[in-house]
Amino acid sequence: MAAPPEKTLKNLSGKWVMNTSDGTFIPTNPPRLVETSDRCPVQQGVSWFMRRIIAFATVTLTVSEYEKDGYTHIDIEQVASPGGVRSTENRTLDWEYREHTDKVFGDVRGKSRWVKLSNVDDDDFLKKGYDDMEGEHVQSYVESKGGGWTADQVS
């Protein structure tokens, strides 16, 4: 199920529930669990126990998007139920690194920005498959401080 048309990258505020069949988030009641891939969390050093919690949990994101001091801020509270594993991630779209300790991924540093696909650095994979090839997208880049991995995402 797709998000309603009024939900865009410029208006993400609301409550989103993870669709466990494909890892996307939808603003409705979640479908039940189906088989999901475990490779990425293993490579990121997520423990077996935490991966089991995530696999059987309903993950809900509460997103608040707003403008402050000339920048877009996206604050995300994530809760996995049952278990109540809770984490908060606050992004400022200014492409400046910020340190963060995540309950799942550990110590990381990341940066986010608005970006046109033509300005995404050196990775053609991140530039493919979008309906809007000309507009602005959100790019988030994260480095693990001890796990040896990076994640680069364009939405």
Could you characterize the architecture of this molecule?
The model is unreliable at 28-36 (pLDDT under 50). The longest helix is centred in the middle third of the chain and has 9 residues, at 48-56. A hairpin with a 3-residue loop joins strand 4 (71-81) and strand 5. The chain has helices at 39-43, 48-56; strands at 14-19, 24-26, 58-68, 71-81, 85-92, 98-102, 106-116, 136-144, 150-154. The protein has 155 residues and is mainly beta. Helix content is 9%, strand content 45%. The protein has a five-stranded antiparallel beta sheet. A four-stranded antiparallel beta sheet has the order 6-7-8-9, with no helix packed on it.
Looking at this protein, list some descriptive labels:
155 residues, mainly beta, 4-stranded antiparallel sheet
Quick recap:
The protein has about 160 residues and is mainly beta.
**Mean pLDDT figure:** 79
Strand content: 35-45%
* Radius of gyration (Å): 16 Å
**Total number of helices:** 2
**Ranges with pLDDT <50 over ≥5 residues?**
28-36
